[in-house]
Amino acid sequence: ESACITLDNGFGNTGSCESAITFLNGEKGILHYRGYPIEQLAEKSVFQEVAYLLYYGELPSQSELNLFKQKVASYSSLPQGIYNIIDQFPLEAHPMGVVSAAVSALSAFYPEFINPTSLSQADIDRAIAQLMGQIKIIIAYFFRRTQSQAPVPSDPSLIYAADFLNMLQGGEGNPIDPEVADALDTLLILHADHEQNCSTSTVRVIGSSKANIFATVSGGIDALWGQLHGGANQAVLEMLNEIQNNGGDYQKYLHKAKDKNDPFRLMGFGHRVYKNFDPRAKIIKNACDSVLQKLGIHDPLLDIARGLEEQALKDPYFIERHLYPNVDFYSGIIYQALGIPANMFTTMFAMGRMPGWLSQWKEMRASEATRIARPRQVYIGATARDYVAINQR
Ligand code: SDX
Questions:
Q1: Which of 2, 222, 289, 323 could form a disulfide bond with 270, CB atoms 3.0-4.6 angstroms apart?
Q2: What is the strand order of the sheet 30-33 is part of?
Q3: Measured from the CB, is residue 326 less than 6 Å from ligand 1?
């Protein structure tokens, strides 16, 4: 089964693609990256190895992985102009807006990337290393600014997730717990790609016009920001906190979620493709237990989340609509336990999804079948009519 999509709205084939990157089976809850089950990758691999697999199609040898890690680590700083741009943002700015703007602004500092049709293989290899390397700098640098803390330089001796956490929380005398870094590394693996979701389709649509890679990825970041998509992980935590602040009565919120007159939806529940369970949610739920136990944290929000899931899975409304926890339902509880603030959860999703976006962009631009995305419509407006002079209206 090839994951083939059509870039149309069902009214005429205005563009389609085949993809060999990620396979989903929504009925069976199957997710494979380049044929490898997500369960095996989450257990046995590391994020940078998965990024290599997605981008190049095969698991790397040790020397290939070492070289890839060196390339990513070589992008451990930003042009001064990007730091200056980030410094202009108010401290209360949402980090997703900062990341999107900073990534787009990179196009001003790397003009060699402006014309995607003239990229060499070396440029293609550089794109993933540079954007994986620089997105974590952007996120960490803005966070440290909001905390009035000096930036912590990237440490190439650390694995990707540990380096990020060290830049976020590290510095003198505050070593990163390897267990914590491993937990974040696993979350990054689970978010790395997901076929033609909203933000990845956005990347393909923007990329199909031959916009530069920074503008293309920045568009994906903006699409991910929405609370129906990547923004759901922050919305889940806000929902759980609201339930806790209202006495923990999650039944009331289940009722609200079913009330068609109430715009409230159970955040972290439901999925356009998975109609039984999201395999990532299962892995994250288990990781939740082990991470909180290792850190000696008892988070009452986890009890509320478990209660919500247990009740929803017995409720005909949710059962009839195949609504189950998705990747965002438990992830925020782990991010919070790792000391990451809620308004940064979606930037974690963006950091994880970066290799997926770039792999799909690379596949799209290499395909001869790619044409500019141009969805059509069914016109339901006024029929043809003549102009009326203003003094006749
Ligand atoms: C991600 O596509 C991907 O792969 C995305 C993603 C990825 O890795 O890239 O997996 C990441 O975005 C996960 C989804 C995160 N979003 C949320 O958790 C937000 C809450 N979920 C819903 O908004 C919704 O379930 C969506 C957006 C995820 C899916 O929307 P759909 O497929 O358009 O579902 P729908 O609106 O057609 O819903 C079908 C029915 C409707 O009721 P009826 O009109 O049939 O009576 O189910 C209801 C909906 O009202 N419904 C919900 C619900 N989700 C759907 N009711 C209450 N709570 C919900 N969460």
A1: 323
A2: 22-25, 30-33, 36-37
A3: yes
Active site residue 386: no
Closest CA to 106 of 360, 343, 354, 359: 354
* Residue pLDDT, tens place only, 49-97: 999 999 999 999 999 999 999 999 999 999 999 999 999 999 999 999 9
Ligand 1: distance of its center to the CA of 35 in Å? 26
Q: Which residue has the tokens 């060290």?
A: 166
Q: Counting atoms of ligand 1 from 1, which one is nearest the CA of 326?
A: 13
Residue 50: name the closest of 143, 109, 132 by CA: 132
For 46-74, give one letter per residue: b (16+ CB within 10 A) or e. Answer: bbbbbbbbbbbeeebeeeebeebbebbbe
The response to whether residue 223 sits with its C-beta less than 6 Å from ligand 1 reads no
Q: Find, among 43, 41, 78, the residue nearest to 52 by Cα.
A: 41
Q: Which of 30, 196, 282, 323 to mutate to test the pocket of ligand 1 (most atoms within 8 A of CB)?
A: 323
ipTM here = 0.97
pLDDT grade for 118, boundaries at 50, 70 and 90: confident
**Does the beta carbon of 194 lie inside 6 Å of ligand 1?**
yes
- Global confidence as pTM: 0.94
